[in-house]
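Researcher: Please translate sequence to structure tokens.
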Amino acid sequence: MRNLIEVKDLNVWLSNYHVLKDVSFNIDERGIVLLVGPSGSGKSTLLKTLSGVIPSVVKGVVKGFSSPPLETLKNNAMYVHQEPWFFISTPYIWSEIVGYTSIKSLSNLREVLEEFRLGHHVNRTTYTLSAGEIQRLAFIIAVNSGKEILLLDEPTSYLDKHNSETLIRYAVKLSKDYGKTFIVVDHDLALWSNYVSEILYLGDGKLTKTSKNPFEEIINNMLSKLSPVNSRSSECLKIRVDSFKFPDSKEPLLTDISFDVCRGEVVVVKGSSGSGKTTLLKLVASGCLRGNEVVNVSGDRCRAVLVPDNPLLYLSSPTPLEEVGLEGLKYLKYLGIASKAETPIMKLSSGERRRLAIASALSRGYEYVLVDEPTAGLDPLNKLHVIEAIIKAAEMGAGFVIASHDPFVEMIANKVVSIERS
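Model: Translation complete:
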């Protein structure tokens, strides 16, 4: 097997911050390499550098040796961003695939979509897709782009177990049968461990090989200490969704959903990717604010806020400190990002932005917090920070409705609402 990529002493600076420090590695063709490490350790920076996003799109200083040279390598590599919504640029699923891949016929289009449970959505508008559906679409485009090297940044962060396993099996097939090479950033080592040729650990800007799960102790700690919160009050919201469908859909997405959430408790909404979890949170939020025909929300008072899966849609200030204010500094500490209080939000990692959005909601004293995939893209330690902050906020009287497929989030739930597409 030939050596496809060789990198020696790679150093990357972003805004004078030394992100990658003397990184060296070799990658063989047809391999699947898993890149793990704490949130904010530079994993995305490494993929962006290999793909040429840094410094051609994102300004930075890159030094080191690469064979082939990075200028050549970027022409044969495709980077799939960890934030799926950054990938979409056209209004329909079919236009995304036809526009950016070699797939042109309707039959081939339906065939590849069927592999990822999107076969009936050829004409669906991309703005109605969930984050998980966009992740599957982005993967389809990447593997049909004609590029030999695919750089996948958290490709399963919004996917349920079934869709994650489908994606991995497809990657393995492409690697073995068609010579594709994958470099994958993912915190779920157990999900990939049986399929990868090598595991690389990136911490504090330095890269090392590893054969074990660097987060094993943290995961065991989570399993031993997480349990449902015990602070339920008598003040509750009663939520009912009779029926909801998007204007361009023939069938309803949500039907006959009914549950209540009380202050001081956690309700987890789970379901497969595209089942309507995010839509349900949006309907609950709008029902709290002004009421509508398909969602009835009742309660003496309703101060609810939606923290979306894209934290940039929620954050509105230049820095974390300005976002939460001095009174909210304690939430930055709970979530492990107090050291980034004065760092520009646009320079935070995806995981750091997600934690900041939750801290912002908590700092404003909302009684009910609707959170969409709060642990997506986080390593186990930072995931634990988020879950512990939710527990603390619930103990202080906040009620949570959380859309998530994360089993660790489910461990703190007082009740679980399961939904599937009609």
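Researcher: Any highlights?
Model: The CA atoms of residues 2 and 79 lie 22 Å apart.
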